[in-house]
Specification:
Elements lengths: L1 H33 L14 E6 L7 H9 L8 E6 L7 H5 L5 E4 L7 H9 L6 E5 L4 E2 L3 H8 L5 E10 L7 H23 L9 E5 L13 H11 L3 E12 L5 H21 L10 H35 L7 H21 L12 H21 L14
Parallel strand pairs: 1-2, 1-4, 2-3, 6-8
Antiparallel strand pairs: 4-7, 5-8, 6-7
Helix pairs in contact: 1-6, 1-9, 6-11, 8-11, 9-10, 9-11, 10-11
Length: 393
């Protein structure tokens, strides 16, 4: 019994360290070996592209988003602006009517983002579609950078880089979200260079319209599932760090947890649906990256955080809490982590220059969100009509 618990303890620690430290370094090393491969150039004749926005009651962002779209460095006659605004009952449609170059597809009934996407995709005919959110601003060369990657015939989808705008002095929500996306973006860049990026974020991603596979209307992570279904057909998901989607951070930790819990519920839904991603023999590199980058974080790390402490206390007890025992030191490290987590909790609404103080607290909340999201997924309580998290001003 003790031997089995010992193995379990070290396996859980090993998997947690692997998921957050070893794999990122490993994929960075693999990417470095491939970094000198030639990169595709822009075609002489730029293709027609649709910039596709699904929106529900986004009146506060319409003018800013359209101004940002008009400022993109791409020929206006080849960039088609499409908004699907199903269910919107504020001034979104009236504001969009001021812009003659914007096509608006509207139905009074709100049936969720996936239904709006599927309906809108039937009404456009460009070969490349770029999805973006109404409250997300894009860097000027985003469209060109994504189009350039599609010159590689192996690329079926391109993910842009999400960045969080914030002040120098940050609270727990903004500093944690910003730090997470800097870390995540670094891994995604290496993932894409080594093999394929593992999924795309809805703030900014593009695909070949011909590769779109309809998904169920109750899909929670449409961007993630759409992009990974393309990867399962043998195409790669490219990644463009110069195609930037800039978004404000969550207003506070409560709003950030809303977002993380619903994403967690969607993660388990995707994992259940896309079983082909676990077929190592069909997709060896993709499966290796998917399990290492995503599945271990979704399943094993939250499990480890629950089980490691009681196991650690048990081993310390049977060794009389000897100062010379490794389990005493691992328990001390865990206590230090939770002290740092409590400090982050106590200061969560304070705007500090030393934003690194909030990282342990944010990490703890991210794993708590996985448990809450799993419970919500099991009860089938996550609506596709998400309540949007409030963003900081």
């Amino acid at each position: 019994m003790a031997a089995a618990l010992t193995i379990l303890f070290w396996v859980l620690i090993g998997l947690a360290v692997y998921a957050y430290a070893v794999y990122p370094l490993l994929i960075a090393a693999i990417a470095r070996l491939k970094r000198n491969q030639p990169q595709p150039s822009l075609p002489e004749t730029l293709p027609h592209v649709t910039l596709f926005v699904t929106a529900f009651n986004e009146e506060q962002f319409v003018d800013e988003k359209i101004a940002n779209s008009h400022a993109l460095d791409y020929p206006a006659d080849r960039l088609h602006l499409v908004w699907v605004t199903d269910g919107s009952d504020d001034n979104t449609n009236q504001l969009l009517a001021k812009y003659p170059d914007v096509k608006v597809f509207f139905e009074p009934e709100r049936r969720g983002k996936v239904h709006a996407m599927k309906r809108g995709l039937q009404l456009i005919n460009t070969d490349i579609v770029i999805f973006t959110d109404a409250n997300t601003m894009l860097s000027a060369d985003s469209v060109k950078e994504m189009v350039r990657l599609f010159e590689n015939p192996q690329i079926g989808c391109v993910a842009g880089e999400k960045r969080i705008s914030s002040d120098i002095r940050q609270n727990a929500a903004s500093s944690g979200e910003g730090a997470y996306w800097r870390y995540e973006s670094w891994i995604k860049r290496n993932d894409a260079t080594a093999g394929s990026a593992i999924g795309a974020a809805g703030e900014l991603f593009a695909m070949r319209r011909s590769l779109y596979q309809p998904i169920s209307d109750n899909t929670l992570l449409d961007d993630f599932e759409i992009s990974l279904r393309i990867a399962l057909t043998g195409y790669k998901i490219g990644y463009s760090p110069r195609a930037c989607a800039i978004e404000r951070p969550s207003a506070n930790i409560g709003e950030e947890m809303k977002r993380k819990v619903r994403i967690a519920a969607g993660s388990f839904q995707t994992m259940l649906r896309l079983g082909g991603l676990f077929n190592f023999f069909s997709h060896p590199m993709l499966t290796f990256q998917y399990v290492s980058h995503k599945v271990l974080r979704w399943v094993m790390v939250p499990l480890a955080m629950v089980l490691i402490i009681p196991l650690n206390i048990y081993f310390c007890a049977i060794n009389n809490f000897s100062i010379n025992n490794i389990y005493t030191w691992t328990l001390a490290a865990q206590i230090l982590f939770y002290v740092a987590t409590f400090v982050g909790f106590a200061l969560q609404n304070k705007k500090l220059n030393a934003s690194w103080i909030y990282i342990p607290y944010y990490f703890f909340l991210a794993n708590k969100a996985m448990w809450l999201g799993f419970w919500r997924f099991c009860r089938n309580k996550q609506s596709v009509n998400w309540e949007r998290a409030k963003r900081a001003n």
